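The pair is quoted verbatim underneath.

:::
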Amino acid sequence: MPDTQRQTSPHNNLTQPNGRFPPLTNQQTTDRKRTMIQSHLIPNVNEDKLSYLLLDTLYRHRHVITSAGVGNIIKDDVQTTPTATQTLETLYGYMHTINSEPTIRFQEISTTLNVAKRVRKALEAANEKDAVFFVCKTPALYDATVAALNIRPLKNTM
């Protein structure tokens, strides 16, 4: 790009003669970290000695319990595969141990477009003591949803 052309930065409306965006300020970096999704696995084993995907998800300084499975939502009726049903039962059991009246919100994921946006919107709508169960129409959508939940290992504090 010639030096005579100018480009406008979308994050602070400064014009740079070299076509490069200026570095992010500390506040912009903090804002990005605040909106980042981070999830950690919740250890769980049912009576059959099987473990299912339960996550403690941190988003905007709030902890929401999340999980996902393959299925459909048809007219407010959640239909899931047997594995997703077991995951949902495990989620309900876990939520019942931390809240006597657990609320599980369902979010359908039906296309690959905007998976991350749908995940963020579901987390924004959830209260701190709620759980969100993502009902994904296909295994590929399940994979994309789990990727959007950004699972991180717990750091060893010892």
